[in-house]
Design brief:
Blueprint (H helix, E strand, L loop, with lengths): L10 E4 L4 E9 L3 H5 L11 E8 L10 E9 L3 E10 L3 E7 L8 E8 L2 E8 L22 E7 L6 E11 L2 E10 L4 E13 L2 E12 L6 E6 L5 E6 L3 E6 L5 E6 L34 E7 L6 E7 L5 E8 L18 E10 L3 E6 L5 E6 L3 E6 L4 E7 L5 E6 L11 H4 L5 E5 L3 E5 L21 H31 L6 H6 L1 H13 L14
Antiparallel strand pairs: 1-28, 2-3, 3-4, 4-5, 6-7, 7-8, 8-9, 10-11, 11-12, 12-13, 14-15, 15-16, 16-17, 18-19, 19-20, 20-21, 22-23, 23-24, 24-25, 26-27, 27-28
Helix pairs in contact: 3-5
Length: about 525
Amino acid sequence: MAPPKIPAPSKIDALPFPVFGLAWYGTPSTATAATGNSSNGKKNIGISALSYCGGGGSSKTGVFNKIITVITTDQEGMRQIEINTGEALCFGITLFRPHDDDLGMVRLLACVGDEVLLYGIPILRSRQSNDYETFNESAAVEEAILLGTVNVGQGYGANVTAFSEIFRNGKLLHCVAVGCENGMVMLYELQDDGAANNGARTVQFVETAVCQGHTKAICAIHFHPRGSEVLSSAKDGSARIFSSETGMQIGVMECEVHDPNGPPPKKPPSDAQQKTKDPRMMKKAPQILVRGCAYGDLEGRTIYTVASGKRGAAYLSKWKTLVPLSSGPTPGGEPKPLSIRQEYRIQCSTVPISATSLSPDGTLLSLGSVDGAVMLYNLETKKVVKSFQGHDLPVTCLASRPIPSALMLPGEMEGGVNYDVVSASADNRLGRWTLQRKSRIQPQRQPRSKREAGALESLLWNIMRVPILIFVFILMVAIHDVFDLCQEEIGLSALMMDMNAARHCIYREVLWAESTRAGVRSVPE
């Protein structure tokens, strides 16, 4: 099915397979990087990397599962890298680039089954090629480099990942958190062993902690802005905070999906009070799915969660942590539990939410609903500022713009549009949505002689057409009478001798009749 028509400058593209994971990484486009005069080489190059993963089957059916990464740089423009995952389907991906990167690569974390794969994707093509400046996008075929892999546990099922750089004990650590289908949160440290592997180095996943507390699948996971905590939300109706160093649980937020100003929902009867003993017929409390969670400020004091049931409205909650992070550990060495207070809970959608993403500045929350709509929610005004209907199936994943809208990503100067969020679904569509009303680049107007008449011009012509035709008819009759009645007076010799005679004839005989003329006041005999 063809994508629906979306009002510009937002747009939606058709994809060859369903998408279940999205990631967007970017650094601002700079003038020095665009000209290639940057003294720091690849580290200061403007980058926009968008990855999406999914598939429709296995290699046996001919429908391969893939990870597609589209990289746009100031120097080389756009190119596409494809990773085949075979019969295994990838659900969650994360893009990042360490500050101490010396490989010139964007890193990609991919959740494939029980494994997490770490790829390195070159930002630029090899400088050994002499024709990179005349790069042809259609011929872009470049393989990602597998740097490392880890199995989170047999039957665990890796769902989502997050990356953070943590400065601990005088060292800069590269840490990864993995949320699993069984509710476990696994913490790892990436360690570079320095061994060569196809021109790159291999990376080892070293397990540092296991976070326990959730009872159902993890939906979202994020590191604290300073890296000291890990925030996760799950299908068990809760969001939890763990210490990134020890894995101990230090905070719990139990989410609710009813109007805070209305009466509380009725609790279902206990198993002993049920009239039937058939588990299929017994009434149970509705399942609460906390689809999204995120830190809302740089201090990590504000937390947002989005929860909904399988049916009904979705609710946005704002939480505040009341214990400073610098309060230190307990005498036993464990971090102090956080005191968390809910500031408000408001309805953000009339239908369940299936995907969320928060902008880096913490002001714009993107919501994807089960009816295929994408809503941009302003957290300051607590209102939906814009809504788009671009998918036929529930939105499976969202990725917010990685940098503020005031800054440009590579390719946006030429396109004239800064997109705020990217969405995808199982309907084989990828949507790009923006708050802009129109592109910054104005379309060139055609010359006036070639352009079509406007609505106003057409209306004026329809009104004046009859009077103009009547005037032309009268003018033709007048010219005929002049040559018929004043032929002698308008001759060349007559005009040279007496021009007043020609003027008098035209006026009296053709244009104006005197009252004494026969037939003017009475019918001639």
